[in-house]
Amino acid sequence: MSLTPAGERGFRHPLAVLGRLARNRAAVAGFAVLAVMGLAALLAGALLPYGAETADLNAVLQPPGPAHLFGTDQLGRDILARIVYGGRISLLIGVLAVGVGAAIGVPLGVASGFYRGRTDALIQRGVDIMLSFPGFLLALTLISLLGVGPRNVILSVGVASVPVYVRLVRGVTLSIRELAYVESARAIGLSDVRIMLRHVLPNIAAPIIVQSSLQLGVALLTAAGLGFLGIGVTPPTPEWGTMLGEAQTYVLAAWYMGTFPGLAIFAAVMAFNLFGDGLRDALDPRMKTL
Amino acid sequence: MAAVPTLFGVTLIIFFMVRVLPGDPARVLAGLEADQTEVNRIRVQLGLDKPVPIQYARFLANAVRGNLGRSAVTQAPVVSEIAGRLGPTTLLAATATVLAGTLGVASGIVVSTRQYTAADYAVTVLALAGVSIPVYWLGLMLMLVFAVFLHLLPAGGDTTPQSLILPSITLAAFSLAIIERMTRSSMLESMRQDYVRTARAKGLADPIVVYRHALRNALIPVVTVLGLQFGALIGGAILTETTFAWPGIGRLLVDAIARRDYPIIQGVVLLFAVTFVLVNLIVDLLYGYIDPRIRFG
Questions:
Q1: From A134, which residue of chain B is nearest by alpha-carbon distance?
Q2: Contact: A134, B234; criterion CB under 8 Å
Q3: What is the model's pLDDT at position A289?
Q4: Percent of chain A surpassing pLDDT 90
Q5: Residue B37, Cβ neighbours under 10 Å: how many?
Q6: Residue among A109, A107, A105 nearest A170 (CA)
Q7: Residue A161 in contact with residue A135, Cβ under 8 Å?
Q8: Which residue in chain A is spatially nearest to B192 when comparing CA positions?
């Protein structure tokens, strides 16, 4: 993981970063998968003959065929259509959950690293306690208190990712606060908030962006895991994990019911991981993984 | 001993967990069907008529003595409900850990000595798949292939010794991939060090260089990862046990959440969190043993 805050100028120029990213075939493949999924989810209505909730009781549990490429489920709903529409829900939940995690974690991390001392100690003890609950267990516990539904999935998964951001951001802030430009900002009398927003935050953006891309994969897996257990997004909403959970009952009769939604989760998570790894290498070539 | 205040904080969170719920904790703990006398009985039994700090002290004193209350559904003590599920989960988690640890370290060593070969790329792709695949889907796919189509292995339950095979592979996959990645990069790093070059230069055989010189130094980050993997293992166990109808603690937790059986949820979450903290403490202490340069004051 790149922790160097500000590299030499050329390395970090957006065009240079994009150029390196474009030459990384794995990252491009990851981006392509995500772009296709995102576009399909947006244009679902125009692309598909069926809706996500269109039930056809004359065609239940149909194996994949020309009429239904991925088959139909126990209510005769087209599985492909449910996956494409489900992308709206699953991908959006992932993005919003990561947003929640970053929105809480980044300010806490910056404050922790910038002020050090008592503020830092207090925040870090809180993080220690959160980290005592393994990520998935934390999300599970939170949702068992909040109750099911998309909003609570976003909150639970987001809050569960807060410690990751606090730790990462604190580390990079600690190194940056000693640099000359932060010192000069302080010397000309800027307020702490202004220094943090204008001088610290832009210079720690790179590791935050990389972490967020990788965190999207984690959030997707966690949210879908909650759906699978029947305590996330509840049926009939076509969330990918929820679809897998429903498919469990029919595993003997209909292999396609669980196979395709799971494949969608797998592909999306892998794409986020490939893209995140590529982004990290592009943003800081010196830290390229072995 | 940073673990002590952390454990204290964990118990505090779990104590307040039930109390932040909207409504009356006595009603929540009594279950939805309980009548008012039952709720009152539980209120007095739990000391909910006392001030909060005293309630917390009692909760802690009881927890230390192994009293975590009673299930709101079965009325059985939480501790005995958990104890009945401990065996299967321990068996599953231990098998998966051994599988992930041995195969992960072994494959990591093998490919690190063959960097940029076909085997290296294949393992790298597999490891990427391993960290990206949803455990519950991997379980479902293994079940489809080996139980539904090939009829080689049971699809679920824990009735025969073969029942352990699919769940433990499912649970091991993620950790295996992480451990392989860590071992590989740590070995590559270690093989570039001067002491490895020295060992080669004085004519030592390749296996001795790899195992005695490079591996010993490469293992330290791997041990760290093993400790952290325990967290992933807990999350994975919850999902794997549900997929394979494995009668362990993870399933107990999922069932309890579905029934809003808060005393059980509290007990299981407490057990998982405390175990996780203790495992990481043990890993910290292990460093000193593996690497004599690291000593804790």
A1: B231
A2: yes
A3: 44
A4: 35
A5: 8
A6: A109
A7: yes
A8: A290
Chain A residues with beta carbon closer than 8 angstroms to that of B230: 134
Give the nearest partner residue to A144 out of B232, B243, B265, using CB atoms. Answer: B265
**B223, B280 contact by CB (below 8 A):** no
- Chain A residue numbers with beta carbons less than 8 Å from the beta carbon of B265 are 141, 144
Q: Exposure pattern of B162-191 as b/e (b: 16+ CB <10 Å)? A: ebbbbbbbbbbbbbbbbbbbbbbbbbbebb
Write down the mean pLDDT value for chain A. Answer: 86
Q: Is B212 left (phi over 0), alpha (psi -120 to 50) or beta?
A: alpha
- 8 A C-beta contact, residue B137 and residue B61: no
Instruction: Give the pLDDT confidence score for residue B24 in this predicted structure.
Output: 66
Secondary structure (DSSP) of A189-212: T--HHHHIIIIIGGGGHHHHHHHH
Q: What is the CA radius of gyration of chain B?
A: 24
Per-residue confidence (pLDDT) for residue B21, from 0 to 100 = 66
How much is the pLDDT for A280? Answer: 85
pLDDT tens for each residue of B111-134:
888 888 888 888 988 999 999 999
Q: State yes or no: cis peptide before B22, omega within 30 of 0.
A: no
At residue B4's C-alpha, the angle toward residues B229 and A219, to 5°, is 35
Q: Do A137 and B273 touch (CB under 8 A)?
A: yes
**What is the reported pLDDT for B138?**
95
The answer to whether the CB atoms of B20 and A262 lie below 8 A apart is no
pLDDT at position A110 is 93
C-beta atoms of A125 and B5 within 8 A? yes
Q: Tell whether the torsion through CA atoms of B115, B118, B123 and B126 is positive or negative.
A: positive
ipTM here: 0.85
pLDDT at residue A12 tops 80? no
- Averaged pLDDT of chain B: 84
Chain A CB contacts of B135 under 8 Å are 225
A vs B: CB pairs below 8 A: 132
Closest alpha carbon within chain B to A290: B185
Where does the pLDDT of residue A286 fall: very low under 50, low under 70, confident under 90, or very high at 90 and above?
low
Interchain contact, B134 vs A221, CB within 8 Å: yes
- Dump the DSSP string for B51-98: -HHHHHHHHHHHHHTT---B-TTT-SBHHHHHHHHHHHHHHHHHHHHH
- Our CA-based measurement puts residue A90 at a distance from the nearest CA of chain B, in whole angstroms, of 14
pTM: 0.87
Smallest Cβ–Cβ distance between B2 and the set A128, A134, A144 belongs to: A128
**How far does the CA of residue A191 sit from the closest CA of chain B (Å)?**
34
The minimal CB distance from B129 to the residues A252, A265, A270 is found for: A270
Is residue A290 predicted with pLDDT exceeding 50? no
pLDDT at position A134 over 90: no
- B contact residues 24-43, partner A, Cβ 8 Å cutoff: none
Judged by a CB distance cut-off of 8 A, whether residue B258 touches chain A is: yes
**CA distance linking residue A225 with residue A242, whole number of Å:** 8
